[in-house]
């Protein structure tokens, strides 16, 4: 079997991990987090993409859908989670499974973070486990790929 291909997609401000509010998001950079994923899942072929730009995130999602070889997407949409109907519509428009992940527990923070406009169109949500949220997201996609297509 070919190595499953997974897109790890990060939205605005996640480029600042390591420097950004370390008490909430930890000291590890996005590069550290991505390298740890590659080390933990040597049989997965990863593609990593981060952008501060909503449109670029949406375009990358469509690229993955069109390439057809992608098993799914682990998405930390950052603040787009809470207000981007455009991103929600894009997730709805693709058939790829998308797992929403967050480093922090968005339900245990400010009120405005407890609303995600994308959760309902994602396959599932992992929130609050720090870097491990990404690993759990990958694990979820691998389990789905093993299950095969739904009847
Ligand atoms: C975040 C949570 C969001 O509320 C926030 O806007 C982020 C990061 C997280 O990973 O915990 O940028 O998605």
From TrEMBL:
Pathway given in the UniProt record: Metabolic intermediate biosynthesis; chorismate biosynthesis; chorismate from D-erythrose 4-phosphate and phosphoenolpyruvate: step 3/7
TM ranges: none
Sequence positions that bind substrate: 76, 82, 89, 103-104, 113
The EC number(s) this enzyme carries: 4.2.1.10
Site (Transition state stabilizer): 20
GO BP annotations listed: amino acid biosynthetic process; aromatic amino acid family biosynthetic process; chorismate biosynthetic process; quinate catabolic process
UniProt keyword annotations, A-Z: Amino-acid biosynthesis, Aromatic amino acid biosynthesis, Lyase
Family label: Belongs to the type-II 3-dehydroquinase family.
Name of protein: 3-dehydroquinate dehydratase
Taxonomic placement: Bacteria, Pseudomonadati, Chlorobiota, Chlorobiia, Chlorobiales
GN (gene name): aroQ
């Amino acid at each position: 079997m070919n190595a499953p291909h997974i897109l790890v997609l990060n939205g605005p401000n996640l480029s600042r991990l390591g420097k950004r509010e370390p008490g909430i998001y930890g000291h590890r950079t996005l590069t550290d987090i991505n390298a740890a994923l590659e080390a933990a899942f040597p049989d997965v072929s990863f593609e990593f993409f981060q952008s501060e730009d909503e449109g670029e995130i949406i375009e990358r999602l469509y690229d993955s859908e069109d390439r057809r070889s992608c098993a799914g997407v682990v998405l930390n949409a950052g603040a787009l989670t809470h207000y981007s109907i455009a991103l929600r519509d894009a997730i709805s428009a693709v058939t790829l499974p998308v797992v929403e992940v967050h480093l922090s527990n968005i339900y245990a923070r400010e009120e405005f973070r407890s609303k995600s406009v994308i959760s309902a169109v994602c396959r599932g949500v992992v929130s609050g486990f720090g870097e491990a949220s990404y690993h759990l997201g990958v694990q979820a996609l691998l389990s789905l790929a093993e299950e095969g297509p739904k009847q």
